[in-house]
Design brief:
The chain has about 260 residues and is mainly α. Helix content is about 55%, strand content about 0%. α3 packs parallel to α5, α11 runs parallel beside α12 and α12 packs antiparallel against α13. The protein is elongated, with a radius of gyration of 25 Å.
């Protein structure tokens, strides 16, 4: 069945008009659950019309309208909700504040609105877990897992977190090094370790020395569980490479690969 053309456009306009006129018995919470980002202008009008009367009401899952907007891909409506009294620091039933929730649901548009309204990133969530560590060890929810650009969206969300005060702890950095290397570019320390580790895996000492000559510490990858170039130099019996690595600051007590 064709989904484009005059007939489908007319149907779309009719459905949009019906959504605009509809009265939702359960108020804003129901409207936020049922009106998608494609009709965000309608939802914004309803939030403004509510005038803050029900902006902080919560549903059975302890979600206020702000949580629902973040979870369902809204952007500008998040800003409108904040302008009308939504609590940008309240946590949901998983103890996630809205900014972390936006990162979890890969919603950078919502994150931009939250940041614009002064919602800053705490170093840890309400349970005391480092925000970066939590982001890197929790898989995206099913609602967004299938998005074709999910990794790029999560990367952008983590960038926003970094720019607004989120500081990854060592465990989070190690997670990036071990299993989330597409995120390594966010942290120079981790990016250097990944670059050196990739060079180390080739066992090409010339390449390792070339990488180190750019200013990367020769033990950068070892700090996160990788094998330092000096180990490969020892295995290959390359005294000249070992001397160069020690001169560059390599620790001679690094464990050997294998």
């Amino acid at each position: 069945m064709a989904t484009n053309g005059p007939a489908s456009n007319l149907a779309r306009q009719f459905n949009k008009a019906r959504a605009r006129m509809r009265v939702y018995p359960d108020g804003l919470l129901q409207a936020a659950e049922e009106i998608g980002p494609e009709d965000e202008d309608i939802l914004i009008q309803k939030i403004i019309a509510d005038n803050g009367k029900s902006i902080r009401k919560k549903n059975a899952d302890n979600n206020q309208i702000l949580d629902i907007l973040v979870q369902t891909g809204h952007g500008k409506a998040v800003g409108t909700a904040l302008d009308n009294g939504a609590d940008g620091f309240a946590v949901n039933r998983y103890n996630m504040p809205p900014l972390l929730e936006a990162a979890y649901f890969a919603n950078p548009e919502a994150m931009r609105e939250l940041v614009k309204h002064g919602i800053h990133t705490p170093v840890a969530d309400a349970d005391g877990n480092n925000i970066f560590a939590r982001m890197l060890t929790v898989n995206p929810p099913d609602a967004v897992k299938g998005l074709p650009d999910i990794q790029a969206r999560r990367l952008f969300c983590l960038e926003i977190l970094l720019q607004n005060g989120a500081e990854p702890d060592f465990y989070a950095k190690q997670q990036m090094f071990m299993g989330h290397r597409h995120l390594a570019t966010l942290i120079p320390e981790v990016n250097n370790a990944v670059t050196l580790d990739e060079a180390s895996k080739t066992r090409d000492l010339k390449q390792m020395l070339k990488v180190i000559s750019t200013g990367i510490h020769p033990d950068a990858n070892a700090a996160f569980g990788g094998f330092a170039p000096i180990g490969w130099a020892a295995i290959q019996g390359d005294a000249a490479a070992m001397e160069a690595l020690v001169k560059a600051g390599a620790d001679v007590n690094q464990k050997l690969p294998g």
